[in-house]
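Priority: medium. Attachment 1 of 2:
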């Protein structure tokens, strides 16, 4: 028995929010552990670590917009959520600066897809009275 499509959409959207929310709090909550790991961190390096996901979202938006025009959204969304989950897990487990930077950047790149896709979905499928006025 297949699950209803609306249920799959709701579960998927909730999982995206769970991972994005975890990521948003993971770095600030683990700063003490990161600083006490024996690897010297400067304030600038910690700031960079905290901002790499936002940078990844910004630079990947254009790429995701183009890919959504050629590749089925379902494929991209499943791939993006899987990569985001893996990079979030990696971020929580690794203790090397460069690897932590890479994990945070990949987290942002995969989250950029959710931001672009959700906006496109709303603009194409929502009733006109519920669409965002500033984008259309």
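Attachment 2 of 2:
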């Amino acid at each position: 028995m297949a699950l209803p499509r609306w249920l799959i959409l709701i579960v998927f959207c909730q999982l995206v929010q769970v991972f994005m929310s975890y990521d948003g709090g993971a770095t600030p909550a683990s700063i003490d552990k990161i600083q006490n790991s024996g690897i010297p961190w400067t304030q600038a390096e910690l700031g960079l670590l905290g901002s790499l996901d936002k940078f990844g979202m910004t630079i990947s938006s254009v790429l995701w917009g183009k890919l959504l025009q050629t590749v089925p959204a379902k494929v991209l969304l499943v791939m993006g959520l899987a990569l985001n989950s893996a990079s979030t897990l990696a971020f929580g487990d690794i203790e090397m600066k460069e690897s932590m930077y890479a994990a945070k950047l990949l987290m942002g790149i995969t989250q950029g897809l959710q931001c672009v896709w959700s906006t496109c979905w709303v603009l194409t499928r929502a009733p006109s009275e519920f669409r965002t006025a500033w984008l259309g």
